[in-house]
Each structure stands twice: as C-alpha cells, then as structure tokens.
Write a structure and sequence with these properties.
3-stranded antiparallel sheet, 12 helices, mainly alpha
Length: 326
C-alpha cells in the first residue's frame, strides 16, 4: 500500500482524535462557553449617534477626543453602552468607528493576546499526553511514519483552535451587527491572524512536548517563550521609533537578528489594527505606529518569518520524535 494514502488517513485520524480529546476533557465546551459570553456582550451593545450629517466639501476629517468641543472641529456625537446599559461611554468618532473599536478590543486584544495565551495553556497537555508510552504504543506497532503522527496531532490542535476562532469571530460579528446595525466584513480578517499566531507558538510547544514529554514544561516554556518573543519584538520597534543613545552596532545587530529569527506576536496584532484601520480610534503600541510611519514595518515579511520559525520548530520536533525509544 502506498505510503501517501496511509499518511493522509493518519492525519485525518489524528485530527478527529484531537477533537475527541477536547470533548473528553471538556475543553471544547469551556471555549464554546467563553464565545457565548462574548457573543452575549456583543448583543448587549448599543451605539447611538449619526454618521450621515451633511459635511462641508472642504471639511478636514478631524475629530476631537471624547468629551471635548471646539469651534470648526467635529465633536463625536452619541454614546456606546455595554452590558445592557451597565457601562456607557462616548463614541470614538462615528457609530461605525465605535463598533470597529469594540471589534479591535474583542479580536485584536482579548482573543489575539489573552485568547491565544489561554489556548496555549489549555492545549499544552494534548501532545505530552499523546506521547506517553501507554498511549502511543498501539500506533507505533504498525507505524505509518512518526512524522505523520506528530503532524496530524499538531494539525488537529490548530484545527481545533481555528474552529473556535471562527465561532468567536462569527458570534461577536453577528452580535454587534444585530445590536448596532454595523456589519464590517474586515473583522473576519481576525480569523487567519488568530490561527497563525497560535500555530506559530504551538509549534514551539510541540517541540518542548517531544523533548520533555512534560505538560508542565510545555505550559511554562511556551509562556516564557511568548514573553521573550514579545519583548524582542517590542525592543526592535523601540529602536526604530526612538533609538537610545549609547547602543553599540553589535547590540543593534543582535536585536535585529533576534527579531527576524523569533516569532513576532506584536507585529501580528499590528497587522489586524492596520487591516481594520484602527489607528484613529484605538491605541496600538506607539512604537509600532512609528515603525509604520518610517516605512520599516513589513507585515508580509513578518508573517513569513514567523511561519518559517514554526516550520523549523516542527522539523526539529519530528527529528526528536523519530529518535525516541518506546
């Protein structure tokens, strides 16, 4: 029998097994419950104000900060309420901008930072559990190829998180659309960015799982690695925005090399901010905005470099898995 159909069947089986494992551990329902709560929050949102006032032909697109007024400059009109009136604050600029601001907070901050970290925590035990001798011995009796087992498990976890990212974006998008009447399709760009961000860091979690077979090491090692990558990403942007005095050429080179070698969580968040045009009403990291204004922010290269790291980490994990003795 050809090895290719066997490998494909193995990948499919491992993906199904990952979903079965998520149901058995109740993780599937926990993540679905969080999505339901966020969808309820979106449904509880109302935005008052108007976006269709008559504008002067030569009017500049200027708006004052919330709660301020001045002659000749448009002041935001209206209010945003959350939790069925529990929280109220002025609109950002217009009704549509206020809804996009909520989308940035939901997908760009809540899901892309807290959500990805929680997903890494909750799924970190999937691979170490799978790699335990009593769990993997049956599969290795007639092995289709250890690389297929590892790739299938990795793909299953990424598909699991991708499904919940899609459900989260769908639920909150529909909730905000129904409650406010604003349907911004750009919000859906959060799905591939969320999945990419998770997949990159989960590749490192997989490498730790294969090397140590320890859930604890996978959890804390991946979190520390995320902090390291974020700090390196921020340092690189800081050197672009405001280079400190006294830094040596070697120091700058090491930061630059570390930035391009490691994944870039801050850049991935910045791509979403740019995609939904959030700069006028949300507050991204100022250093990222400065790098963009100086023409030194390259989102395509940033994504490709992060994916290259993930591919390399998976290759190392597959090599280590191949050498394991059971």
């Amino acid at each position: 029998m050809s090895a290719t159909p066997v490998a494909i069947r193995t990948l499919r089986w491992m993906v199904r097994d990952t979903f079965r494992q998520s149901l058995a551990s109740r993780l599937f329902w926990v993540m679905l419950g969080i999505t339901a709560l966020c969808t309820l929050l979106a449904l509880s949102t109302t935005v008052t104000g108007t976006d269709d006032r008559e504008k002067h032909p030569y009017e500049l697109p200027l708006y004052l900060p919330r709660g301020q007024a001045a002659e000749g400059i448009a002041a935001p009109q209206g209010a945003v309420t959350l939790g069925f009136g529990m929280v109220t604050y002025p609109v950002a600029k217009t009704r549509a901008d206020s809804v996009r601001e909520l989308q940035v907070w939901l997908a760009g901050i809540l899901a892309d930072t807290a959500g990805v970290l929680l997903a890494l925590l909750w799924t970190a035990g999937f691979l170490p559990t799978f790699l335990e001798p009593h769990a993997v011995a049956v599969l290795l009796a007639k092995p289709p190829g250890r690389w297929a087992l590892l790739a299938g498990k990795y793909a299953g976890v990424v598909a699991f998180v991708g499904l919940h990212a899609t459900l989260f974006v769908f639920g909150t998008w529909v909730g905000l659309g129904v409650s406010t009447g604003v349907w911004d399709a750009r919000y859906w760009l959060a799905v591939p960015l969320l999945v990419t961000n998770f997949a990159v860091f989960y590749s490192f979690s997989a490498f730790l799982a294969v090397c140590t077979r320890s859930t604890v090491v996978s959890v804390f090692g991946t979190l520390l690695f995320w902090v390291l990558c974020w700090a390196m990403n921020f340092t690189h942007l800081r050197l672009i925005a405001a280079p400190p005095e006294g830094i040596s050429a070697f120091g700058s080179f090491m930061v630059e090399a570390g930035y391009w070698f490691l994944p870039k969580p801050l850049d991935l968040s910045g791509i979403f901010f740019e995609a939904v045009n959030a700069h006028g009403y949300a507050s991204p990291v100022p250093e990222l905005q400065a790098a963009r204004e100086k023409g030194q922010f390259h989102p395509e290269l940033s994504v490709l470099a992060s994916l290259a790291f993930a591919f390399g980490a998976l290759l190392l994990a597959a090599y280590e898995f191949r050498k394991m003795d059971y």
